[in-house]
């Protein structure tokens, strides 16, 4: 049986002004795949819904997962108070993850807090890929870890303080990248632009989607996104991000 | 061991704990987290005569001690339900309660007829759906309409019918009496309470639908009060729900007058909530020396 479990915090780290990393020892680590996520819970009796956070790094040897998150509200703020040896309630791994990895020229694109899941994927690909990272400014996070994998890294920043001044798509053009697949996670406008760019280049494009969740397992139908065709499970133009995603072929979803 | 069995309109449940409609799909997803054979019953997500797309997202929002949802009754329609979802539950030793929704009396009746020869043990009729012919107001808010639709469904249904009441009314006992007069075999209550949440930074509604149904522990005292009041005026059994998350909540609901309980929102943050509640109730009965869980029903004094 799958279960909600108590994970043990083994390390925490502040990466930027508002981005934090937390390494958690948990059973979920033994089966997790890049692109999957875990539901983290506050367990304070008032905040009942899960905080879905992508799996950033997977360490099977130590049975740990690393989560990297931006502080945006009550939940993420409370996670920053956790210290090594504290416990945290979590459930996972959830969702499908990036599983179709048979390509020769993969490009991984992450924007903002869409960057963390790309590190796990980059490590799974042994760095044999190009990574395009979109940050707000030169206050980057996880950059050294991407470089350590040996992947070639391209950077875009909103304010131009590092790399290309502009979007990840601008950076891809500037770098003249050629690719047969794009794996991406980030804000919707970024995913929309990548879908178009990939279609123009006749490349496959995977997008990782985000929506507010309640159950995280596909039971409540809270977290749907619109699909191009009638979805096989729901029988309407809707699919569950938590269960059938969060990773989708870009052409299958309406962005 | 205390006797945990309860009977709802002739259907025996191994214990009084069931899932709440819409929070448990049709059992497939949570069957990986909890042994469905342990449950008194599984209540499935509302099903209509054809697939419903539901509302735009965001569909869920967190509020203190609870949540709002505006799923909009998305469902795959009765055909898929009969081919795929109900057969899945046939493999489990638990009572199957099928929740039915519709926009018009005809739509409800269509689903009820399709279920006549199915393996459903009981039907739960969600009358909180907007009634298209009455300009979108919910069936469940007008006693006359409740009595009429109950009578119409009772005539067609092969299984006992549970009428699920909306708490968004001035006096829920009037609605309960109307359902009983229309021939309801069982009542279930409460459905969600209409609420709203506004994001103060964006100065806009959190839910795309603006309003959503509130559920979770914060609504429990309201549900207990409504079940208690209703139990005083009807003689048919009541399935109590609304914020049940612990065995204490479940015992409280039965003391107020419920013959069984449904667990909804609690599944989301504790997938084992139903089984934890069953085990907690068993221990409570043992400790109190109570022979049968039915001794709790309406025992508050
Ligand atoms: C599949 C998935 C993976 C994610 N991965 C990451 C990640 O790796 N790093 C990261 O920083 N963020 C990630 N997010 C976003 C993250 O879930 C939210 O930032 C977080 O839930 C906010 O919680 P809060 O309590 O701080 O904010 P509050 O605004 O106080 O939260 C209130 C409620 O809204 C929900 N909520 C608020 N914002 C979001 C959002 N953007 N998406 C979904 N639910 C939200 C919360 O879960 C909570 O239930 C991911 C979201 C999804 C759906
Ligand atoms: C996400 C969600 C979906 C729901 N869907 C339905 C539904 O399809 N039909 C129905 O009769 N009630 C539905 N309900 C109401 C529940 O069955 C229950 O009456 C209510 O949530 C109160 O119980 P709780 O506080 O334990 O969740 C839904 C509730 C939630 C939270
Ligand atoms: S969060 Fe419940 S179906 Fe996705």
What are the defining features of this structure?
heterodimer, A: 255 residues, alpha/beta, Elongation Factor Tu (Ef-tu), domain 3, Rossmann fold, seven-stranded mixed β-sheet, globular, B: 301 residues, TIM Barrel, eight-stranded parallel β-sheet, four-stranded antiparallel β-sheet, 16 strands, binds flavin-adenine dinucleotide, binds FE2/S2 (inorganic) cluster
Report on the structure:
In chain A, 18% of the residues lie in helices and 33% in strands. With 255 residues, chain A is of the alpha/beta class. In chain A, strands 4-3-7-1-2-6-5 form a seven-stranded antiparallel beta sheet. Chain B is an alpha/beta fold and 301 residues long. Chain B has one domain (6-296): Aldolase class I (TIM Barrel, Alpha-Beta Barrel). Chain B has helices spanning 78-90, 105-114, 143-156, 172-181, 220-233, 247-256, 266-269, 273-288, and strands at 6-8, 11-13, 17-19, 41-43, 60-63, 66-69, 95-100, 122-126, 161-164, 186-189, 193-196, 198-199, 204-205, 211-215, 238-241, 260-263. In chain B, the strands form four sheets. Chain B has an eight-stranded parallel beta sheet with strand order 3-16-15-10-9-8-7-4. A four-stranded antiparallel beta sheet of chain B has the order 5-6-14-11, with no helix packed on it. In chain B, strand 12 (198-199) and strand 13 form a beta hairpin. The mean pLDDT of chain B is 96. Classes of the chains: A alpha/beta (255), B alpha/beta (301). Chains A and B meet through loops of A and strand 5, strand 6 and helix 7 of B. Flavin mononucleotide is lined by residues 20-23, 45-46, 69, 71, 73, 99, 126, 164, 191-192, 215-216, 219, 241-244, 263-266 of chain B. Flavin mononucleotide binds next to loops of chain B.
Give the topology, please:
The complex is a heterodimer of chains A (255) and B (301).
Chain A: E1 4-14, E2 19-25, E3 37-41, E4 51-54, E5 57-59, E6 64-70, H1 74-79, E7 87-94, E8 106-111, H2 115-124, E9 130-135, H3 143-148, E10 152-157, E11 164-165, H4 168-175, E12 181-185, H5 188-200, E13 204-208, E14 224-226, E15 238-240, H6 241-244, E16 247-249
Chain B: E1 6-8, E2 11-13, E3 17-19, E4 41-43, E5 60-63, E6 66-69, H1 78-90, E7 95-100, H2 105-114, E8 122-126, H3 143-156, E9 161-164, H4 172-181, E10 186-189, E11 193-196, E12 198-199, E13 204-205, E14 211-215, H5 220-233, E15 238-241, H6 247-256, E16 260-263, H7 266-269, H8 273-288
Parallel strand pairs in B: 3-16, 4-7, 7-8, 8-9, 9-10, 10-15, 15-16
Antiparallel strand pairs in B: 1-2, 5-6, 6-14, 11-14, 12-13
The complex binds flavin-adenine dinucleotide, flavin mononucleotide and FE2/S2 (inorganic) cluster.
